[in-house]
Amino acid sequence: MAKTNQTSESVDRSKPINGRRSFIRKTGAALSALVASAAAGFSRPAAGPAAGLKAPVDRLPDADAVRSLHRTYESRLDRHMFEDVVALFAAEAEVVYNGGLFHGKEGIRRLYCSHFASGLTGKRIEPAPGFAPDPAQQPDVVAIADDRKTATGRFPYSIQVGAPMTGDSSLVEMARLQGQGVVQWWEGGIQEASYVREGGAWKIKRLEYRVMSKADYRPGRSNARPITVPQFSEAYPRNPNGPDRIVGTKSKIGKA
Questions:
Q1: Which of 75, 210, 36 is nearest to 136 (CA)?
Q2: Does residue 42 surpass a pLDDT of 80?
Q3: CA distances (Å), 228 to each of 98, 116, 204, 252, in order?
């Protein structure tokens, strides 16, 4: 029996394929428009009031520089290079952490070189088991101001946090003698930051840790559970490692 299915070899080539040609014409026009749109995004000399404006593509190197600065911050924090961390901040910078605000180089050095160092805080670790990333923890976002002198950023984080044990009980004293006088936990959330050019380089102007979840790792990774950690209640100098002032927190803590 002869086959009735028409193959590609039996198509009448003498007839124009209007649909295909129309598709090619439309596609070509769309690509031309796309190329023209992309070309329009690059900086060109402008006249009039808009001459001082910069197209977003001109700010890409600045965005890359800010992201690089944040990666350097996380890397030095992870390696407990606390003095190097302090060097990444502007002269009049501030950090909001655990309900306290640390201001200027002196305050920021107190936070990282005294408070963070004493609790072995800053090591990057995976989220605790059972703690799914919060929907608010989107990929990092960086925005450069039109004048290219300031910027803002938003970055998710997941780190180990620690704090020296308090109290004078025999158990606490024994733990200290055995080098285990630090309570440790996992913490995850969002870092909101602002940046400024200082001396020709990008520096961190303000950094705020917004905690989404905390979990106790002591029972074992498979048994991590939410915990509550006391915030700063006393400012410096009453608390030698404390903040310059108490500001409370906007954190939203709980199990995801």
A1: 210
A2: no
A3: 12, 18, 29, 12
| Structure tokens that stand for 40 in this block | 């329009």
Q: pLDDT (tens digit, 9 = 90+) per residue, 112-128?
A: 999 999 888 999 988 88
Smallest CA-to-CA distance from 196 within 228, 150, 240, 155 is with: 150
One-letter amino acid for residue 11 of the chain: V
Helix (H) or strand (E) holding 91: strand 89-97
**CATH number given to 56-246:** 3.10.450.50
The reply to whether the predicted model has a pTM over 0.90 is: no
Distance CA 134, CA 156 (A): 10
Cβ-in-10-Å burial (0-12, 13-18, 19+) of 67 comes to: middle
Place of tokens 């800053």: 122
Report domain extents, the chain: 56-246
Take residue 136 and report the two structure tokens written for it: 């608010």
